[in-house]
Write a structure and sequence with these properties.
Elements (H helix, E strand, L loop, with lengths): L27 E6 L3 H16 L3 E3 L7 E6 L4 H17 L3 E5 L5 H7 L5 E2 L5 H11 L23 E5 L1 E2 L10 H5 L3 E2 L2 H13 L4 E5 L14 E4 L2 E4 L2 H13 L4 E4 L12 H6 L5 E3 L7 H7 L5 H14 L4 E8 L6 H14 L3 E6 L17 H24 L5 E9 L4 E5 L10 E3 L11 E9 L4 E6 L2
Parallel strand pairs: 1-2, 1-3, 3-4, 4-5, 6-9, 9-12, 13-14, 14-15, 18-20
Antiparallel strand pairs: 7-8, 10-11, 16-17, 16-19, 17-18, 19-20
Length: 466
């Protein structure tokens, strides 16, 4: 079993899982997938295409004829991690193809690692395939190389990320993601729902809906109508969530929304949560609370109105769980502005919180802002912020002791079962542990538990009859 605190960084996806064995003589590729869940979905798409062409996937460098490294460029520390992973793949294997967000800066990569075979940017699936074909020619056997209807998945079989759009229309000064991934491009609603249906039919118990800006889904398509099951469905997040919830209801699966900006129409999602169609969980990147800091970030400066929205969401759905991320030490942040954020946290009482110390990122407009905050001040503010968040989390979890909740089993070992409640997304939130009566449980099981104990981040419970 594992215990928290978790990494608390929402830009990191779960570790990819590779569990297939190649047939004799089958060309085999390795995959290193770095960065966020959106990048993990890109890796799944690449491997699905390659798997359909007869390639096998290797869990290690030595068993691979070549290695694909899907990079992250979110922060300078993430870029350094990507360069390190490329170097390791070159040292261990020798044949390396680079893709992903950092691939938008090919000279940056080849300047450090000139021996890589090819560099492609994010979502450039065809170019990745071309590079693979050049390094390791395909050798398909259509009678043996069967592809699952859901494609290749790098997450455990009982949950799956479902990406509904690419890109972002925001111009936050600290972020270069729109420069790398472009403007918002939403998938047609019927295509998203068809993928959701396939995943649910394959036994997935939780759909994690992701994008760069989930609330904006369909804006670029002018919320067009799409054919679906004899009728039509609008490309709008409310309609999409409702239809996805209806599909999930038939299997008892969960639908969880991530990266939801607090636009006014988000209030239309909350009744769907109260009805039980989607999980009562909102992952909203507030980033800060002080209006002046938000203005310097080029984000909507409406923290007071945000508190009103939070109160309205909780009134409409008392069980709603709110998760968010924040940045401390942003250029120009004063002690008074930081204290304002701490006071806002006391009022908002968010359930799940992650926090970044601000980093300058090459190409970000915030680099040029005056009054950069010293590193030791950033660390001090991060420590104080996380202490506040931990206090709030501990009190909220303690209040759940004695209640009964439905949980989803993620893993089972000799010590017990590691589960999640509806309030917990994989990897970034807490866990619920069962250390008695777990012997017959397996990943993907759903069951009721009575919560018996709580810590700052995690819960412990025992199975009970429904």
């Amino acid at each position: 079993m594992t215990s928290n605190p978790p990494n608390l960084r929402p830009d990191l996806a779960p570790q990819p899982r590779f569990d297939e064995r190649p047939r004799e003589g089958q060309p085999t590729l390795g995959m290193v997938s770095l960065g966020c869940p959106k990048a993990l979905v890109d890796s799944e798409r690449i491997l699905t295409r390659l798997r359909a062409e007869g390639y096998a996937i290797s869990p290690d460098y030595k068993g691979a004829d070549a290695v694909i490294v899907n990079t992250c460029g979110f922060l300078d520390s993430a870029k350094a991690e990507s360069l390190e992973a490329i170097g390791e793949a070159l040292a261990e294997n020798g044949k390396v193809i680079v893709t992903g967000c950092l691939g938008a800066e090919p000279e940056f990569i080849t300047g450090v690692h000139p021996k890589v075979l090819a560099v492609t940017g994010p979502q450039q699936y065809e170019q990745v395939l071309d590079a693979v074909h050049g390094a390791v020619p395909p050798a398909p056997d259509p009678f043996v190389d069967l592809l699952p209807a859901t494609g290749v998945k790098l997450t455990p079989r009982h949950y799956s990320y479902l990406k509904i759009s690419e890109g972002c229309n925001h111009a936050c000064k600290f972020c270069i993601i729109p420069d790398m991934r472009g403007k918002l491009v939403s998938r047609p609603a019927h295509a998203v729902l068809r993928e959701a249906e396939k995943l649910l039919d394959a036994g997935v118990r939780e759909l994690l809906v992701i994008s760069q800006d989930t609330s904006a889904y369909g804006l670029d398509r002018k919320y067009d109508l799409n054919p679906w099951k004899g009728g039509e469905v609008r490309s709008h997040i409310t309609d999409l969530a409702r239809e996805m919830g209806k599909l999930a209801q038939g299997t008892g699966a969960w639908v969880r929304l991530h990266y939801v900006y607090p636009y006014p129409h988000v209030r239309d999602l909350v009744p769907l949560m109260a009805e039980g169609l989607i999980l009562p969980y909102l992952d909203i990147p507030f980033q800060h609370a002080h209006p002046d800091v938000l203005k310097r970030m080029a984000r909507p400066a409406a923290s007071a109105k945000t508190l009103d929205e939070i109160a309205a969401w909780r009134a409409a759905c008392p069980d709603i769980v709110l998760r968010s991320t924040f940045i401390v030490g942003y250029p120009g942040e004063t002690e008074e502005e930081f204290q304002y954020l701490l006071d806002w946290m006391d009022e908002a009482q968010l359930d799940r919180v992650g926090c970044f110390q601000y980093e300058n990122v090459a190409g970000a407009r915030s680099n040029a802002l005056p009054d950069q905050v010293p590193e030791e001040v950033k660390q001090d503010r991060w420590d104080r912020f996380m202490e506040k968040a931990q206090q709030i989390s501990a009190a909220k979890l303690e209040a759940r002791v004695g209640t009964r909740e439905q949980v989803l089993v993620d893993s089972v070992d000799d010590e017990g079962a590691t589960c999640r409640t509806r309030a917990d997304a994989p990897e970034i939130d807490g866990n619920l542990f069962i250390d008695e009566g777990f012997e017959d449980l397996k990943p993907g099981d759903m069951l009721s538990v009575e919560i018996e104990e709580a810590s700052e981040y995690d819960l412990w419970g025992r199975p009970v009859a429904d």
